[in-house]
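Please check the following for our workbook:

***
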Amino acid sequence: MVGLAHALAAARRGDRVVLFERDGYAVGASIRNFGMIWAIGQQRGAVNQRALRSREIWLELGAKTGMWAEPTGSLHLARRPDELAVLEEFVATTPAAREHGTTMITAAEAARRGPAVRAEGLLGAMWSPTEVNVDPRRAVPAVAAHLAEEYGVDVRFGTAVRGIAAPRLSTTDGEWRADRIVVCSGNDFATLYPEVFRASGLVRCKLQMLRTGAQPDGWQLGPMLCGGLPLLHYAAFEDCTARAALDARMRAELPFHREHGIHVLLSQTADGRLTIGDSHAYAATHDPFASEEIDQAILGSLREFARIPDPRITERWTGCYPSLRDGRTELVADPEPGVTVVNGVGGAGMTLSFGLAEEVLGR
């Protein structure tokens, strides 16, 4: 996604662009995610503004291409007083969110807005209208096709870049020259500029996700949903003083969830399936195996706040993405003149990449 975003930003500036992708089609983190354009969870200030700019671009692309991009908004559901306290503090202390329509609503209103909301035991919710739901497996190829058709971008799938000595690139499809080279290599830290990655602090985050089949009778989720655990995951809530009490309770009551970085969200795909997740484990290298215990913990948490017509799971997968663990939201480095490395957007690639690309190329 990061590479597609930079190709689009460059093409819109009038540059002639070639996009090299090592695989025959997208198979990595760009398609192994919720499809959530999740501005509400991003760090307050400049990063949130970047997310909102990305949101604008997603909606523009949806209008131009017919790609499914639904401005569904989101509901953070509070079932315990400490969860409600964090949400209320966030709304009260974040004028920018309020200006975009974020507000606290009653349990009854949340149930009216979200047909999957489990109303019993619900204390209240935070409604945010800024979130957009896309279908990653359709959106990524749709953006690539749009780049080629609208801007003449030369999209070369199945072509690996083996080495760079700017302005020259050596690829599996011959030698190339470019005035500016942007390296968005995702989880590959070894092929290009390994010294940059060794010094970067990047690790890999492994996650587990699940998906149901298409829901019956065209049932629609509406707003994307989450419970209390994401309040401990997303940077938007880090400055809320009420978060400390929530963290302490979660560590005492849900030690397995906290150990495995489980926080539960629910989104939908263009054909009506529901995407559920996820977990987070951080290391330089991960084993390739999925844990059924983690999957069951995710599903158990989902059942506490959501009720869906057909919960049968039809797909499971693991994903992996580069992550910075020191609070930085991206890695941008210039290892030699004419070359920029962009990586480390973590689990917010769909949410931040379009806005970030405009900033990087505008430097």
